[in-house]
Each structure stands twice: as structure tokens, then as C-alpha cells.
UniProtKB/TrEMBL annotation, chain A:
The SKP1 component dimerisation domain, residue ranges: 104-150
CDD domains in alphabetical order: BTB_POZ_SKP1
This protein's pathway: Protein modification; protein ubiquitination
Assembly and binders: Part of a SCF (SKP1-cullin-F-box) protein ligase complex.
Pfam families assigned: Skp1, Skp1_POZ
Domain SKP1 component POZ: 5-64
Protein name: SKP1-like protein
GO process terms (BP): jasmonic acid mediated signaling pathway; protein ubiquitination; ubiquitin-dependent protein catabolic process
Family: Belongs to the SKP1 family.
Automatic annotation (TrEMBL), chain B:
Pfam families xrefs: At5g52880_ARM (PF24104), F-box-like (PF12937)
Residue span(s) of domain F-box: 112-158
Matching SUPFAM superfamilies: F-box domain
Xref: InterPro entries: At5g52880_ARM, F-box-like_dom_sf, F-box_dom
Protein's name according to its UniProt entry: F-box domain-containing protein
């Protein structure tokens, strides 16, 4: 058979992850690679993701493969714990999920990050995420005025 | 005649060190003093110069410039060449600690800055989970977020969440043929859709939002046809992420507060039937869902 049961992924910092093919197939990026080249026992490089992040992503893929039949409550609790991480970890994860193209994981992390924005003022969001305000005073006033209709 | 110690102190190196722009100069000066004078200096001054060199390394992590790092490297080379063994080891250790701290700091900075530098498509996706007010707030954070938060698709989504699915507005209108069309905005929008001109959804949202202020649709809740529950409206997807269900079948239908009451009372058998793939019954029900806020408004 041309199909291998196992797939080896190589992170950006050179660590090897040997995982079930079915786990890897949750990433559309890897799915395309496997379909296109059908490598037998070959190593698939994942140059955009480091080992720490990749192991976390694979943890998600494994869980969501095994537990397809688990009931929703258990599922969402596990997901909630999974994204209960620091901002920089979420950043690494979203970039990895985006690169590997795992839509449910992208949704999960985006939802988490969005929940950190909800109900916050722009100043507070800048403070939490350490973002520089690159508007000029006039521009900021102008934008504030333009969105005033929603807060009346 | 002043002593070398007094002259050294007059250089004021210790005070200038913490200033970022002077730090590299102090480094260079110190490394010249080490190479050219250290062995000829009295013991007490030797130890002062050595302490200053250690202070240079200690301060390195606070300096974020490349010139500071290379100047500190230069000083290290001088220290290695001149200092006796014990002091040399001490200086090298101090320098190594400083380098590690430097790396940690720059990594932390990178990580903190991460969210500001997310690619636009990822930002837009994150913003699609926001409610309308939060979406406007993130638009005021910085320029790159502002352009992501102005994305037309996001506002189309907001329109759908607050006022019902925009794509079906024209279909709905046909169904409610006999009814008097009193909403001018909706007619405009319908015409826009019909003529396939591009729509500024943010603008459309704003006009409709202001127009409907009195009878606004504020439950921010939706009904998931797959798991038959009322959920918060996020991104028009069920937060429970049903595996194996195609995302287009997973759409959440906005519901009014009145419908939530009906749902709790178990009065909503018609609502549950919407999950059936039977397109006829779904059509009839949808029109009921969307016309609801209108009725509550008139009340």
C-alpha cells in the first residue's frame, strides 16, 4: 500500500513529531501535501511553527479526533481549558493554526481573543495587548466622533 | 595635583552609564582605560574601574540598542585581556547573565507586540466574533486594526446578526407581498442587492441602527438548529462547533427576547422544526423569525 499510517512532522526548530495520519489530516495544509506528494515515511517540514506550539496544536488534533463522539459539554470544556493560555501563546497558536489551516482551531482561538476585547475601551485594549497608539490626536478624535452613533 | 582616583571620578562615568545614549561611549572609554591604564592604576582605583565594568554589564539588558551590545562586547574583550583571573571570571559571568536577560527581554517584547502585528485576514476573523460596539472599539486601537475592523464582510455580518440575514431580505419581501413596506432603508438595500451594486455595509448598518433605535432588536441571542439551544450570537456559528456538520448548515438564526421566552416555556415547537432539512417548512419559519422584531416594535 502506498498509504502510510504514520506521518512525521518536523518543526521549525528541528524536532520530529511522529503522529497518526488521521491526526495530521485535520490540517488542510498537511492534507494537501500528503495528497500531492504522497510521501512514504517522508518527513513533512512545518517551517512556520516551533516545537512548543506544534505539540500544542497536535494535542488539539488528537483530542478532536478521538472524541468525535464525546458529548458537546465535555468537548467545549476541554476547548475552554485549551485556550486558557497567555496572550503570546494564543498568538503563536493562531499563527500556527492559520498556517496549518485547521478551521475549528482557528475559530476557537479567535473566539477566545475576541472575548478579551469585548466590552473594553480602546485604551484598555492597548494596555492589555501592549499596542502603540499610532493615531494622531486629530485622527483619533475624528474616528471617535464617527463611531459615536453606536454608543448613544 | 589631583590623584588618578579624583580624576577618574571627575569623568562621571558611573552617572552617565544608565543613560541610553551615553552608554556606548562609557563602554568604549572604560575599555580604553582598562587596556591602557588599568595595570598602572592604584589598587583602590583598579577596584572602582572593575566595579564600573560590572555595572556596565548589569545595565546591558535595559539598553535596547545594537550599539550598546557591541560596545559591551568591546569592553568584555578588554576585560578578558587585562583583568586578573578571578575578576575576569566574574566579569565574564556577569556579561553572560546580561546576554541571557537581553534575549529574554527581546523575546518578551516580540511576544507582547504579537497581537498588534497579526496579519489582516486573521484580525478580520478575530473581529468577526465581536459584537458591534466592541468592533467599533477595536477600530480605535491603531491603524492596522482600524482597517481590519472596517472590513465590509464584518459589517455585513453585523447587519445579519442585528437585523436578520441580509441575503434573504429580498426573498422575505416577496413573501410578505401584501404588507406595506414602511422601512425605506430596507427597500434601498433591497434595490442595492437587486442591482448588485456594492454595498457599504457599515454605512447600511449605521443608517438602519439609528433608524431602528426605538424598536431595536437587542437580544444578541440566536437559535442553533443543530443542538436546539439558544446561544450567544458569535460569528453566526454555534459555539459548540458540531463536528461532522457542514458549516453552512450550522447557521444561527437571530431570535428576539420574546422568542427566548417562548423557548423557555416550551412553546416553540415550530422553532425546533427548523432544523429539519425540509426547505418548505424552514422557509415559512424563517419569515416568522425575521418578522418578529417588527411586531414587537409595533407593540
Amino acid at each position: 500500500m502506498a498509504f502510510t499510517k504514520k506521518v512525521t512532522l518536523k518543526s521549525s526548530d528541528g524536532e520530529l513529531f511522529i503522529i497518526d495520519r488521521a491526526v495530521a489530516l485535520q490540517s488542510r495544509t498537511i492534507q494537501y501535501v500528503l495528497e500531492d506528494t504522497n510521501p512514504v515515511d517522508a518527513i513533512i517540514p512545518v517551517p512556520a511553527v516551533d516545537a512548543r506550539t506544534l505539540s500544542k496544536v497536535l494535542e488539539y488534533c488528537k483530542k478532536h479526533l478521538i472524541d468525535l463522539n464525546t458529548d458537546f459539554e465535555d468537548y467545549s470544556k476541554w476547548d475552554k481549558d485549551f485556550v486558557d493560555a497567555e496572550v503570546w501563546m494564543l498568538y503563536d497558536l493562531i499563527m500556527a493554526a492559520d498556517y496549518l489551516h485547521i478551521p475549528p482551531l482557528i475559530d476557537l482561538i479567535c473566539d477566545k481573543i475576541a472575548s478579551m476585547f469585548k466590552g473594553q475601551t480602546p485604551d484598555k485594549i492597548r494596555e492589555i495587548f501592549n499596542i502603540d497608539n499610532d493615531f494622531s490626536k486629530e485622527e483619533e478624535e475624528d474616528f471617535k466622533k464617527k463611531s459615536g452613533w453606536a454608543f448613544k | 595635583m589631583s590623584t588618578p582616583l579624583e580624576r577618574y571620578q571627575k569623568l562621571g562615568l558611573t552617572d552617565s552609564l544608565p543613560r541610553i545614549y551615553q552608554y556606548p561611549f562609557v563602554c568604549k572609554e572604560l575599555s580604553f582605560i582598562l587596556r591602557g591604564a588599568y595595570n598602572k592604576l592604584p589598587k583602590n582605583l583598579q577596584s572602582l574601574v572593575f566595579q564600573d565594568a560590572l555595572a556596565v554589564f548589569r545595565l546591558l539588558p535595559q539598553m535596547q540598542t545594537q550599539s550598546a551590545v557591541s560596545a559591551a562586547n568591546l569592553l568584555l574583550q578588554s576585560a578578558e585581556a587585562v583583568l586578573p583571573k578571578q575578576k575576569r571570571t566574574q566579569a565574564v559571568t556577569e556579561f553572560k547573565h546580561a546576554k541571557v536577560a537581553c534575549k529574554r527581554r527581546s523575546k518578551a517584547r516580540q511576544e507582547e507586540e504579537g497581537l498588534a502585528h497579526l496579519p489582516q485576514d486573521v484580525l478580520v476573523h478575530i473581529f468577526s466574533f465581536l459584537d458591534m460596539q466592541s468592533l467599533l472599539s477595536v477600530g480605535l486601537v491603531c491603524w492596522s486594526w482600524n482597517s481590519a475592523a472596517s472590513d465590509n464582510c464584518l459589517w455585513q455580518l453585523q447587519y445579519a446578526i442585528c437585523f436578520g440575514n441580509s441575503e434573504d431580505i429580498s426573498k422575505m419581501k416577496e413573501r410578505r407581498d401584501g404588507e406595506l413596506v414602511e422601512d425605506k432603508e430596507e427597500t434601498n438595500l433591497k434595490e442595492d442587492i437587486a442591482t448588485r451594486t456594492s454595498i457599504d455595509w457599515r454605512d447600511a448598518f449605521k443608517r438602519k441602527y439609528i433608524g431602528k433605535r426605538a424598536k431595536r432588536f437587542t437580544s444578541n441571542r440566536g437559535y442553533c438548529g443543530v443542538c436546539h439551544t439558544i446561544v450567544w450570537l458569535n460569528n453566526m456559528k454555534c459555539p459548540k462547533r458540531h463536528p461532522g456538520v457542514k458549516s453552512e448548515n450550522q447557521q444561527i438564526k437571530p431570535v428576539s427576547p420574546q422568542q427566548i421566552v417562548e423557548y423557555i416555556l416550551g412553546d416553540s415547537l415550530s422553532m425546533t422544526s427548523s432544523s429539519d432539512s425540509d426547505s418548505d417548512s424552514e422557509g415559512g419559519l424563517l419569515s416568522k423569525l425575521w418578522t418578529y422584531p417588527r411586531y414587537t416594535g409595533i407593540d
